[in-house]
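Example noted here:
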Amino acid sequence: MANVVCDYRFLLLLAALVFIYIQMRLFGMQSEYADRLAAAVESESHCTSQMRLLIDQISMQQGRIVVLEEESKRRELECGQLKALVEELERKGLQRLTDKVQVPVAAVVIMACNRADYLERTIKSVLKYQSSVASKYPLFVSQDGSNPDVKSKALSYDQLTYMQHLDYKPVQTERPGELIAYYKIASHYKWALDELFFKHKFNRVIILEDDMEIAPDFFDYFEATAALLEKDKSIMAVSSWNDNGQKQFVHDPYALYRSDFFPGLGWMLARSTWDELSPKWPKAYWDDWLRLKENRKGRQFIRPEICRTYNFGEHGSSLGQFFKQYLEPIKMNDVQIDWKSMDLSYLMEDKFTKHFADTVKKAKPIQGTDVVLKAYNIDGDVRIEYKDQFEFERIARQFGIFEEWKDGVPRAAYKGIVVFRYQTSRRVFLIGPDSLKQLGIEDA
C-alpha cells in the first residue's frame, strides 16, 4: 500500500513538472507571438503611413499636372493670339506698302545670312532708289540662320519687312567634300520664294543678294521688262546682270539681249514660273540647276549689256571665285534711262531672232589665229566662228571674256552666240557651229 502511494505521488510530481514545462513553453510562445504581432502592427502602421505619404505626393503631382496643363493651354492660347497679332501687323504693314491704286510690280528680297556689314551696304543702295517707288517694290530682307548682327541690322530699318529662315536639320551632302553652304542657300531660296509667292501672293519677285549695289535705273528697268515676262512665256526670268559686263566689253546702256544662259545676280521671276520650279527645287547648286536644258525647256532670259547691279562680295560661300578677274571690273550703269518710253517689243521671241540675225549678218567675218588684233583694227562689228567648246575657250581666253560653259551653253550665249564689245563700240560675235543656221542666216 505504501508503494502504491509513493508511485502515485511520483506520477503527480511528474505530471506537475510536465504541466509547468508546458505552461512555460506556452508563455514563451505567447510572448514570441506577441512580439511578432507587435512588429507586424508596427510594420502595418509604417506601410499605412508610407502609403498615405505616397497618396499625398500623387495628389500633389496630379495637382501640378493639372496646373501645368492649364498653363500649357494658356501659353498655346497666348501663342495663337501673338501669331494672329504678328500676321495682322504683317498684313497691315504690307497693306500700308501696297495700298495704292496699282498692284506692286514686284517684291524685292535681299537674301542674307551672316554678313551684317555687306547687308547694310546693300540696303542703303536699294533704299536710295526704292524709297520713291516703295509702293511698287515692297522691300524684304530674308535671313538664313540666327546671326544676331544681321537680324539687328535688318530690324533697324522701318522701310523693309524682315523674314527669318531657321532650319536646324543636319545637312547631308550628296557627294563627299561638298560645301554645306550650297545646300543651305538652296533651302533658303526655296523657303523665301515660297513665302513671297504663296503666302504673300506677289505676282513677281526680284531677288538680290546681300553683297550688291543697284543702278539708278534698276527699278525702271524691271518695270519695263515685267510686261515682257508676263506676255512672253518663252522668257523664264529677267536679269540685271551680264557675265561679260566688264568695262572693256560694254558700251550701250540701252542694249538688251535674250540669253540661253541664266545670269542670276539680281533677277526677276514670275509666280507662274515658280509654281513649276518650287516642287522640284534642288537640294544644292540651284543656279546651275536653272541652267540645265531640262529645266529651261527652251526658255530664255533677258539680260542687259551694261549691268544694273554690282557685286562687291569678295568674301562669301563661293570663296571669292572669279572676283578679281570678272566681278571687280564690272561696269554698273550710271545713266538714268527712260525705260517707259522704250519699245522693247523686239525682245519678244517672235521678233528677237530676226532682230539679232540682222545684226549678226552685217558683222564682218574674220578668222585666223590673230583674231583679237584683226577685230581691234576693223571699224564696225565682226564675227568669229568657233567649231567646238575647246576652240571657243581658246578665243574667249584671248579676248578675256568668260570661258565657262554650263550644259553645253557658254555664259551669256544666245543660240551659241556670245556678243560683247571690244574696247570701243564695235561688237564681237563669237558664233557656234550651228548658230547661223538657227538664226536663218545662209551664208557662213
